[in-house]
From TrEMBL:
GO terms for biological process: meiotic chromosome condensation; mitotic chromosome condensation. One of its GO terms (cellular component) is condensed chromosome, centromeric region. This is Uncharacterized protein. It comes from the Eukaryota. GO terms for molecular function: histone binding. InterPro entries: CND1/NCAPD3.
Length: 172
């Protein structure tokens, strides 16, 4: 939440700590906690798994970024997290957003109501954002070797997916 701090020096110190210390020691931490952040910052507590830690009312109030008035702050955090994930983690995050949020809505595990709508809106906004797109699929104007048609992009996406699956299987 300090990523949205108005004091630039404090914000830069937090960014330094996250990028140079935390991510060096725990490289998957942003991916592992991304979905939890969506539930937490929207104060959605009706899910069986996410946002289940105990907090006092004061802590909930202090750390809440719920509501339209805090939407910009939430997205600053989401975009920072995505910008600091490699492609395989972005791919897994996309899969988990679809499964744990959108799939839960479709299955009825998350009811569409006033408390879940902001979380769903955040999820859909994230899924359509440039930050979640795989770097290998983003077109770069200075790089003329980038694929220009959809077939080449699909082949590249398949290669990234295969690499991710192989790395997950070999890690087991």
């Amino acid at each position: 939440q300090c990523l949205t701090e108005k004091d630039e020096e404090m914000r830069e110190m937090v960014i330094f700590y996250i990028t140079e210390r935390l991510l060096k020691r725990f490289p998957k931490i942003l991916c592992q906690h991304f979905i939890e952040c969506i539930f937490h910052y929207n104060c959605y507590e009706d899910h069986e798994t996410y946002n289940r830690f105990s907090q006092s009312n004061l802590e909930k109030e202090v750390f809440s970024l719920a509501g339209r008035e805090h939407s910009h702050e939430r997205h600053i955090i989401y975009h920072f997290m995505l910008d600091h994930m490699p492609d395989d983690q972005r791919f897994m995050t996309t899969q988990r957003l679809c499964q744990d949020v959108l799939g839960a809505v479709v299955d009825g595990r998350i009811k569409l109501n006033k408390s879940s709508m902001p979380m769903l809106e955040d999820t859909l906004t994230i899924l359509r954002s440039d930050e979640i797109k795989l770097a290998s699929l983003k077109s770069r104007p200075e790089d003329t070797d980038q694929p220009t048609d959809q077939a080449e992009q699909a082949v590249m996406a398949g290669m990234v997916i295969k690499k991710t699956i192989i790395s997950q299987v070999s890690g087991v």
